[in-house]
Design a protein that fits this description.
4 helices, six-stranded mixed β-sheet, alpha/beta
Length: about 120
């Protein structure tokens, strides 16, 4: 699975996803880093067949209205320490990878994985 982690989430998440065997980048890896506009993030993600991983509701609206990005993983855990976030991804990564492969809009909460466009 290929991921592009947005600015509100730690670079450590992208590093951890890469260490877990996925192709993962963070917005800090882009030329404009965390100043990259959402439109550009969508363009890069779609061109590279990446799932945008974000906490930003703006991507949800863009997905619902414009179909961009083509694949979206919304992290809706509220404020959560980075260690808990990484533990949540570690616990749910196999199911998240399958969900993101089969569904264009996936949501990760503290308690579940929600599929929004089956």
């Amino acid at each position: 699975m290929r991921f592009l982690v947005d600015a509100q989430l730690p670079k450590r998440l992208a590093i951890w996803l890469a260490d877990a065997g996925h192709d993962a980048a963070h917005t800090l890896d882009l030329p404009r880093a965390n100043r990259t506009p959402d439109d550009e993030i969508c363009r890069v993600a779609d061109a590279e067949n990446r799932v945008v991983v974000t906490k930003d509701d703006d991507f949800v609206y863009s997905f619902l209205v414009q179909g961009r990005p083509a694949r979206l993983l919304l992290v809706s855990t509220g404020n959560i320490p980075n260690a808990e976030l990484l533990a949540l991804f570690q616990e749910r990564l196999p199911a998240l990878a399958v969900s993101c492969s089969n569904c264009h809009f996936v949501e990760l909460t503290r308690d579940s994985i929600l599929l929004h466009d089956e």
